[in-house]
Specification:
Strand content: 15-25%
Shape: globular
Number of strands: 7
Number of domains: 1
Radius of gyration: 15 Å
Order of helices and strands: HEHEHHEEHEEE
Largest sheet: 7 strands, antiparallel
Number of helices: 5
Oligomer: single chain
Length: about 160
Protein backbone atom coordinates (compact mmCIF):
# COMPACT_ATOMS: atom_id res chain seq x y z
CA UNK A 1 0.00 0.00 0.00
CA UNK A 2 1.48 3.38 -0.96
CA UNK A 3 -0.18 5.31 1.89
CA UNK A 4 0.42 5.49 5.58
CA UNK A 5 -2.39 6.18 8.07
CA UNK A 6 -2.83 9.89 8.67
CA UNK A 7 -2.45 9.26 12.41
CA UNK A 8 1.05 7.90 11.74
CA UNK A 9 2.09 10.96 9.74
CA UNK A 10 4.38 13.29 11.71
CA UNK A 11 2.52 16.39 10.50
CA UNK A 12 -0.98 14.98 11.08
CA UNK A 13 -1.77 17.64 13.69
CA UNK A 14 -2.02 20.33 10.97
CA UNK A 15 -5.01 18.49 9.51
CA UNK A 16 -6.75 17.77 12.82
CA UNK A 17 -6.96 21.32 14.10
CA UNK A 18 -10.26 22.92 15.02
CA UNK A 19 -9.18 26.12 13.27
CA UNK A 20 -9.07 25.82 10.37
CA UNK A 21 -11.29 22.77 10.54
CA UNK A 22 -11.30 20.12 7.82
CA UNK A 23 -14.56 18.31 7.21
CA UNK A 24 -14.33 14.54 7.93
CA UNK A 25 -15.19 13.67 4.31
CA UNK A 26 -12.19 15.75 3.18
CA UNK A 27 -9.89 14.50 5.93
CA UNK A 28 -10.17 10.89 4.73
CA UNK A 29 -8.98 12.03 1.30
CA UNK A 30 -5.71 13.48 2.65
CA UNK A 31 -3.34 10.57 2.13
CA UNK A 32 0.31 10.78 3.20
CA UNK A 33 2.51 8.43 1.22
CA UNK A 34 4.77 5.88 2.83
CA UNK A 35 8.40 7.01 2.81
CA UNK A 36 9.20 4.69 -0.09
CA UNK A 37 6.36 6.01 -2.27
CA UNK A 38 7.04 9.62 -1.23
CA UNK A 39 10.66 9.22 -2.33
CA UNK A 40 9.54 7.90 -5.72
CA UNK A 41 7.07 10.74 -6.30
CA UNK A 42 9.75 13.25 -5.26
CA UNK A 43 12.26 11.76 -7.73
CA UNK A 44 9.67 11.59 -10.52
CA UNK A 45 8.20 15.05 -10.08
CA UNK A 46 10.77 17.24 -8.31
CA UNK A 47 14.40 16.15 -8.16
CA UNK A 48 16.54 13.11 -8.77
CA UNK A 49 19.36 14.46 -6.59
CA UNK A 50 18.08 16.82 -3.90
CA UNK A 51 15.90 15.82 -0.96
CA UNK A 52 14.46 19.11 0.32
CA UNK A 53 13.11 22.28 -1.30
CA UNK A 54 15.89 24.30 0.37
CA UNK A 55 18.46 22.35 -1.66
CA UNK A 56 16.88 22.68 -5.10
CA UNK A 57 18.92 24.55 -7.69
CA UNK A 58 18.76 25.47 -11.38
CA UNK A 59 19.42 21.86 -12.38
CA UNK A 60 15.95 21.10 -11.00
CA UNK A 61 13.07 22.12 -13.25
CA UNK A 62 11.28 24.13 -10.55
CA UNK A 63 14.27 26.45 -10.16
CA UNK A 64 14.94 26.87 -13.88
CA UNK A 65 14.35 30.55 -14.74
CA UNK A 66 12.22 29.46 -17.71
CA UNK A 67 9.82 27.62 -15.35
CA UNK A 68 9.43 30.48 -12.88
CA UNK A 69 6.50 32.80 -13.30
CA UNK A 70 4.78 35.30 -11.06
CA UNK A 71 5.87 35.63 -7.43
CA UNK A 72 3.05 36.75 -5.14
CA UNK A 73 1.85 37.00 -1.56
CA UNK A 74 -0.17 34.11 -0.11
CA UNK A 75 0.23 34.83 3.60
CA UNK A 76 -2.09 37.84 3.72
CA UNK A 77 -4.94 35.69 2.43
CA UNK A 78 -3.93 32.85 4.77
CA UNK A 79 -4.10 35.16 7.80
CA UNK A 80 -7.45 36.66 6.83
CA UNK A 81 -10.91 35.17 7.10
CA UNK A 82 -10.97 34.80 3.31
CA UNK A 83 -10.87 31.11 2.54
CA UNK A 84 -9.83 30.87 -1.11
CA UNK A 85 -6.33 30.64 -2.43
CA UNK A 86 -5.08 33.88 -3.97
CA UNK A 87 -6.82 34.66 -7.26
CA UNK A 88 -3.56 34.48 -9.19
CA UNK A 89 -2.94 30.91 -7.95
CA UNK A 90 -6.48 29.88 -8.92
CA UNK A 91 -6.02 31.47 -12.35
CA UNK A 92 -2.67 29.71 -12.82
CA UNK A 93 -4.35 26.38 -12.04
CA UNK A 94 -7.55 27.15 -13.96
CA UNK A 95 -7.42 23.96 -16.02
CA UNK A 96 -7.27 21.79 -12.87
CA UNK A 97 -10.55 20.12 -11.95
CA UNK A 98 -11.62 19.47 -8.35
CA UNK A 99 -11.18 15.72 -8.84
CA UNK A 100 -7.62 15.98 -10.23
CA UNK A 101 -5.02 14.18 -8.12
CA UNK A 102 -2.47 16.52 -6.59
CA UNK A 103 0.74 16.00 -4.67
CA UNK A 104 1.76 18.36 -1.91
CA UNK A 105 5.48 17.82 -1.43
CA UNK A 106 7.14 19.04 1.77
CA UNK A 107 10.36 17.13 1.13
CA UNK A 108 11.53 13.77 -0.14
CA UNK A 109 10.00 11.78 2.73
CA UNK A 110 6.81 13.83 3.20
CA UNK A 111 4.46 13.87 0.23
CA UNK A 112 0.68 13.92 0.44
CA UNK A 113 -1.81 12.90 -2.21
CA UNK A 114 -5.30 14.35 -2.31
CA UNK A 115 -7.65 15.94 -4.81
CA UNK A 116 -7.43 19.53 -5.94
CA UNK A 117 -10.89 20.19 -4.48
CA UNK A 118 -9.81 18.99 -1.04
CA UNK A 119 -6.63 21.05 -1.29
CA UNK A 120 -8.56 24.21 -2.22
CA UNK A 121 -10.87 23.77 0.77
CA UNK A 122 -8.05 23.01 3.25
CA UNK A 123 -5.05 24.86 1.82
CA UNK A 124 -4.47 26.79 5.02
CA UNK A 125 -3.82 23.56 6.92
CA UNK A 126 -1.27 22.39 4.36
CA UNK A 127 0.65 25.64 4.77
CA UNK A 128 1.39 25.39 8.48
CA UNK A 129 4.70 24.09 7.09
CA UNK A 130 5.73 26.60 4.49
CA UNK A 131 9.46 26.12 3.95
CA UNK A 132 9.29 25.57 0.21
CA UNK A 133 6.65 22.88 -0.37
CA UNK A 134 5.50 22.33 -3.91
CA UNK A 135 1.93 21.82 -5.10
CA UNK A 136 1.89 19.63 -8.20
CA UNK A 137 -0.92 18.16 -10.22
CA UNK A 138 -0.63 14.64 -11.54
CA UNK A 139 -0.10 14.95 -15.31
CA UNK A 140 -0.22 18.77 -15.09
CA UNK A 141 2.49 21.22 -16.10
CA UNK A 142 1.48 23.95 -13.63
CA UNK A 143 2.82 24.00 -10.08
CA UNK A 144 3.15 26.37 -7.13
CA UNK A 145 5.95 26.63 -4.59
CA UNK A 146 5.22 28.25 -1.22
CA UNK A 147 7.84 30.00 0.91
CA UNK A 148 8.04 30.94 4.58
CA UNK A 149 8.40 34.64 3.73
CA UNK A 150 4.70 34.55 2.78
CA UNK A 151 5.22 34.42 -0.97
CA UNK A 152 4.66 31.75 -3.56
CA UNK A 153 5.94 31.28 -7.06
CA UNK A 154 3.82 30.12 -9.96
CA UNK A 155 5.71 27.51 -11.95
CA UNK A 156 5.26 25.89 -15.35
CA UNK A 157 7.02 22.64 -16.07
CA UNK A 158 8.40 22.50 -19.59
CA UNK A 159 7.58 19.42 -21.66
Amino acid sequence: MPYQPLDGFAKAWIFKRSDPFIQPEDLVQIKPFTELRANQVWRDYISQERTHPDHLNQKDWSQDPEAIGLNLDWQTRWESDDEPLPDEVLAHLENWQDDNIIYFCYHQDDVIETSYGVFKRSWKNFLFFDNGPLLLGKKKKQAVQFFSDGTCTLLSKKP
